[in-house]
Amino acid sequence: MNLGFLINMFTDKEINLLNSITEGFSKEAKHAYLQSFDEFMNDWYNFVEKVERGYSMTIDDYTNDLTKRDLIAKLLEQVPDTLKNKVNALVDPWDKRFDKATNALKSPIFGEGNKPWWKYRIPKKLTGDLQEDIIALKIK
Question: How far apart are CA 39 and CA 130, in angstroms?
Answer without folding.
Answer: 25
